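Posting here for the record, re: NAP.
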Amino acid sequence: MRAPTALITGGTSGIGKATAELLHSRGYRVMVTGLGNVAGSGIPEDITAVRADARSLPDIDQATDEARRRLGSLDLLFLNAGVSRPGSIESTGEDAFDALFDINVKGNFFTLQKALPLLNDGASVVFTVGAAEGLGAAMTAAKGALLPLMRSLALELAPRRIRVNAVSPGMIDTPVYGKLGISREMLGSWARDVPLGRIGAPADIAEAVAFLASDAASYITGDNLTVSGGIGVHANA
Ligand SMILES: NC(=O)c1ccc[n+]([C@@H]2O[C@H](COP(=O)([O-])OP(=O)(O)OC[C@H]3O[C@@H](n4cnc5c(N)ncnc54)[C@H](OP(=O)(O)O)[C@@H]3O)[C@@H](O)[C@H]2O)c1
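Prediction output follows.
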């Protein structure tokens, strides 16, 4: 039987890396993209890792060409590359605003557009969303824009039985907090605000993505799976 295949953007760190490792351990052939030192990311050797800036259409072209060469076709496209720029309206400059929308929205949109010919009928597309109000209006808007995008694409791609969903992580312990200058102690202290009493692990999200990619989720499309330990439950009532 043919091994399933997955392309994961932002797969060199945190949630994307954990998902790549989980799927690889379950028999997927996996390719990941990242922005920085992909060779030094510690990803298992038989996972292809390429540098591709999600803001750059030529980079996206190159990455999807490489995916075609390495994997042939795709059963899962995990659109996970993203950046956080929390901040008030006063403190959000044009660079931060552009990075948020270029990487989180434009990059995901065009990666899916370029990868469409590679997606097998019945394939799964998963967006990483997850930004609650209170973290910064621009950041929440950039992530929030992915939800109507995801739902529209679920309808558009349904004739090919391609399912399009989102995962919305709560607070997940990845390098992103260090990049934002948030200490381990501060992150640990935030666990008190999580109903289930702990910060999430990248593997918590990886399991959700693996589920959405699997046949067990074959009747789920246009949906947003929140994986937050209970954060935000009151807002969903
Ligand atoms: N961790 C959380 O609590 C949390 C909560 C809600 C949503 N999320 C979302 O989850 C996703 C993954 O975040 P994470 O927490 O795992 O963060 P992370 O560890 O910082 O990983 C981010 C990944 O995205 C890549 N990336 C960043 N900018 C890129 C660009 N311009 N082009 C291509 N790749 C780029 C990074 O590559 P390099 O490492 O090479 O820069 C890295 O592989 C993001 O979309 C984030 O917004 C995370």
